[in-house]
TrEMBL record:
Disordered: region residues: 698-722, 803-855
Basic and acidic residues bias: start-end ranges: 707-722
Record keyword Nucleus present: yes
Name of the molecule in the record: Uncharacterized protein
Domain Serine/threonine-protein phosphatase 4 regulatory subunit 3-like central: 191-693
Subcellular location(s) per record: Nucleus
GO molecular function, a single term: protein phosphatase activator activity
Pfam entry (one): EVH1_PP4R3
InterPro entries per the UniProt record, alphabetical: ARM-like (IPR011989), ARM-type_fold (IPR016024), EVH1_PP4R3 (IPR055236), P4R3-like_central_dom (IPR006887), PH-like_dom_sf (IPR011993), PP4R3-like (IPR051137)
GO cellular component, one term: protein phosphatase 4 complex
PP4R3 EVH1-like domain ranges (all copies): 18-125
UniProt keyword list: Nucleus
GO biological process, one term: DNA damage response
């Protein structure tokens, strides 16, 4: 029987079941709709028919005996139709009218037979050959089923890229090792595009296509087509050629990547990618960008494989971030990232490897920057060295912790930290940004490395500390972005372990620990650097507030943010500084600034002080009549709903909720007239109510134990509860208006010294905050202190604290490390002089926690 007139029947039930399918159609809402169950057949050479299974009598379906069984589906096999095989039993395609259809087979063998037949017919149609009848006789004779026999078919499965091992059996049965692509030529580009596109739809097809491309060296055969198409101005072929290359890249085959990244191949590949069918009027210039990016070796790298990996990594990043950025899928992006990462691991590993070649290379490079070598071959400049170290540090930042720790340990030994003397003050913003990025990568790994280096500088009596240099550049850099970055770097350097360094007993706990670098560094910072850091605020005068320059205003905002941080983090050190300097009065001046963001920064400082719930702070601020300034700032907002207005309200709401009685009383008794007319919020009414409740005496809801100051005392560390009578007298003394400038020395409690304005570096005179200076007046009822039975140890505790805090900064880091701390060392190389002609280097060995783990 001819296939044009009928379809041959297969009598056995097994063959009947393997041709049994469910038909699905994708509706407008993206949901697959079940159209029914039937049996599939191929008729008239190119038509797929699915005949409806008829379980009901003909009369029920309004048909008579002998009428044709109704068709569920009639679809034509076209050479331009994209039939997609998914999983083992699913074939999906799009009709000419745009409707998405799917056939879900009950048996895998039936899907295999139809899929093979569809591919054979499409190949014949593409070649312009009529489909012979014998082609349809091969494993494609399909019967119509007269009854619903066999089990029901499951719902349409979701598509998956993972294929069964049964695909290998299918491949052997088909007799093809992998799909065959036409020989590359101008006339075959369209066919190549269609074949590659069809094969790329599934994981199995991509795998076989990759094998064919590698076996036939197919990419090399495609390269000449670019020049031919451009010479003939064949735009359509250029678009197709670009599409072919993209699909080959998306195969994610490492060996294909290695080939296209070769020196003579890569420019041609990116040239093909310049053409995009979606953006016909916007041709890119990838070839020009690649040719202009030349790999320059400061000093020739002895290992050619490492030099090759550096070039390859750049090209992979170019594909990922530029040439293919618009159309990358997750799998290709991950494949490119993986190759980049492993290349970078090999590169950094070579520099820190045990063979010493990488270390010797870096020693020569850093020697150029430190001027120990005048100039390397090829005219290498110091700026080029900085940019090289910036790129290398950026790569090392993404490495594993152990490799990263080895890298920074080696760089510290070679003198990396000494480069900042030259780079942070450079005239070129590009060099300063690179230096800031290098320092940021070090701090991201382990801030203690920078702190230890500063202590090593003190021990070696260096003329300028790294932290002082960073503060100086922070205060003077004209670029606002870099200024903000340096502010963040300073904050990271000042980070401390609050559990170990909190309260007056912190010095004792730090001394008793194996590593006191952080405590020594903070002593150094408050003695030599703190005054210089807040200098922009200390220099403020009243007449400056109305006409403050933007750069000055931005600097004051950054200083205020750092003040907020150190108040919260440095506890007793920051408290001694705030109470013993003029910083509070100067920050109050900022509340009169013209710009609202400057006033907001000042409000945040005072909110931080109140948030500490410390009566010492509270009385100090009351002495400066802080609420008059804050309420005036609040009134100046004219009730506008903005951040400054809300920040001011937050202070009073916090005081009310925490019931800090001394502050509540002061606000209501002395400043009620300033907020009496504020009725658009309930904050001040509730504050007055809180004051009245406090004066009524203990109640059920608000008793004597609800005192905010007592709550604050309960949360203080033990050290505050053990203050002796001399220190208590210090906070009870009357003070004068110039108490912040008192130079009277302490007789019992030694506190950190504050560097004078005449010299922020070594050798500066110091102002000492003493107990007799009387910073503020003590209230009639002293703070309640915790009464411990064992008071005999108080003298020992505070004598230990006195010895710790009285250690001058010039002696920091000079003591011999303990045996427990000497297990690991980081060796720092320092310059003995900032002079350009200096050729000597001295090495200071500073004890630090080793072991390869970053912070």
């Amino acid at each position: 029987m001819s296939p044009n007139s009928s379809v041959h029947a297969i009598p056995n039930n097994q063959n009947r079941d393997r041709k049994r399918v469910k038909v699905y159609q994708l509706d407008s809402e993206g949901v697959w709709e079940d159209k029914g169950t039937g049996c599939v057949a191929v008729r008239d050479f190119t038509w797929i028919h699915v005949v409806h299974e008829d379980p009901l009598p003909p009369s029920t379906l309004n048909r008579h005996d002998g009428d044709p069984i109704p068709l569920l589906l009639k679809a034509r096999i076209r050479k331009d139709a994209d039939f997609i095989r998914q999983q083992d039993t699913l074939i999906v395609w799009t009709e000419e009218d745009g409707t998405d259809m799917a056939l879900s087979f009950q048996e895998q063998e039936g899907c295999n037979d139809l899929w093979t037949l569809i591919n054979d017919i499409k190949k014949k149609l593409a070649a312009g050959v009529s489909v012979p009848g014998e082609l349809l006789q091969r494993n494609c004779q399909i019967s119509y089923i007269d009854s619903l026999s066999g089990p029901d078919i499951d719902a349409l499965p979701h598509s998956s890229e993972e294929e069964d091992n049964s695909q290998d059996e299918l491949l052997r049965r088909s007799g093809d090792a992998y799909p065959s692509l036409p020989t590359p030529s101008m006339g075959a580009i369209k066919e190549i595009e269609e074949t590659v596109f069809a094969a790329s739809k599934g994981a199995y097809g991509r795998n076989q296509l990759s094998k064919f491309i590698l076996a036939e060296n197919y990419v090399e055969k495609l390269l000449p087509l670019l020049e031919m198409c451009e010479d003939m101005e064949s735009t359509d072929e250029l678009y197709s050629l670009s599409h072919i290359v993209k699909m080959i890249v998306f195969l994610n085959e490492p060996k294909i990547y290695e080939y296209i990244l070769q020196d003579d191949v890569f420019p041609v590949i990116v040239g093909m990618l310049e053409y995009d069918r979606e953006y016909p009027s916007a041709q890119s210039s990838y070839r020009q960008q690649v040719s202009s990016a030349q790999f320059k070796q400061l000093i020739p790298i002895p290992d050619t494989s490492i030099a090759s990996k550096i070039t390859q990594t750049y090209r992979l990043q170019f594909l990922r971030d530029t040439a293919l950025a618009r159309m990358l899928d997750d799998s290709t992006f991950a494949a490119l990232n993986s190759m980049v990462f492993f290349n970078q691991v090999d590169i950094v590993g070579w520099f820190v490897g045990s063979n010493g070649a990488g270390e010797e290379y870096l020693s020569k490079v850093i020697g150029v920057l430190n001027e120990e070598i005048e100039e390397a071959d090829g005219g290498v400049t110091r700026d080029e060295v900085v940019l090289f170290l910036h790129e290398l540090s950026t790569v090392a930042k993404g490495m594993q912790v152990t490799l990263r720790a080895n890298y920074y340990r080696m760089m510290a030994k070679l003198g990396l930290f000494a480069i900042f003397d030259y780079t942070l003050g450079h005239d070129n913003i590009k060099i300063r940004l690179a230096a800031a990025a290098i320092l940021a990568s070090i701090l991201d790994h382990d801030p203690s490395l920078v702190r230890s280096f500063c202590l090593a500088q003190v021990k070696q009596k260096q003329p300028q500390l790294l932290i002082s240099l960073l503060i100086s550049r922070f205060l003077s850099d004209p670029d606002p972005g870099l200024q903000s970055q340096m502010c963040e770097l300073i904050r990271i350097i000042l980070e401390t372990d609050e559990s170990a360094l909190n309260g007056p007993g912190a010095a004792l706990s730090a001394i008793s620990s194996n590593d006191s670098d952080t405590d020594d560094f903070l002593n150094l910072f408050y003695e030599k650097c703190m005054e210089n850091l807040v200098r922009p605020v200390l220099d403020l005068e009243t007449h400056m507030m109305e006409s403050m320059e933007p750069q000055k205003a931005s600097l004051c905002v950054h200083v205020c943010s750092l003040l907020c941080y150190i108040i919260k983090s440095h506890s007793y050190r920051s408290k001694y500084y705030v109470l013993g300097s003029a910083i509070t009065a100067k920050v109050i001046l900022l509340l009169r600034a013209k710009d609202s963001y400057v006033r907001l920064a000042a409000v945040r400082v005072f909110r931080t002080c109140f948030g500490m719930k410390d009566e010492f702070y509270n009385r100090h601020l009351l002495k400066h009549d802080i609420f008059s300034a804050i309420l005036q700032c609040f009134k100046d907002t004219n009730g506008k709903y903005n951040l400054l207005n809300s920040a001011c309200l937050d202070i009073f709401e916090f005081i009310r909720k925490e019931n800090i009685k001394s502050l509540v009383t002061n606000i209501v008794q002395h400043h009620k007239s300033m907020f009496a007319d504020v009725d658009y919020v309930e904050t001040f009414k509730n504050l007055v109510l809180r004051y009245e409740q406090n004066n009524e005496g203990p109640t059920v809801g608000l008793g004597a134990e609800d005192d905010g100051s007592k709550d604050a005392e309960k949360t203080k560390p033990d050290g505050w509860a053990k203050m002796d009578n001399d220190e208590e007298a210090y906070f009870n003394e009357d003070d004068d208006e110039n108490g912040a400038e008192s130079n009277t020395s302490s007789s019992h409690l030694v506190v950190p010294t504050i560097a004078s304005s005449t010299d922020a570096e070594v050798g500066s005179s110091a102002t000492v905050v003493s107990p007799s200076s009387g910073l503020f007046k003590r209230s009639a009822s002293p703070l309640g202190l915790v009464d411990y039975e064992d008071d005999d140890d108080d003298d020992d505790i505070f004598s230990s604290r006195q010895r710790a805090l009285s250690t001058p900064a010039s002696q920091v880091g000079s003591s011999t490390p303990t045996a427990a701390a000497s297990s690991g060392r980081v060796s720092f190389t320092l310059n003995s002089s900032s002079s350009a002609s200096a050729k000597r280097r001295r090495t200071a060995s500073v004890s630090s926690e080793d072991g390869g783990e970053g912070k």
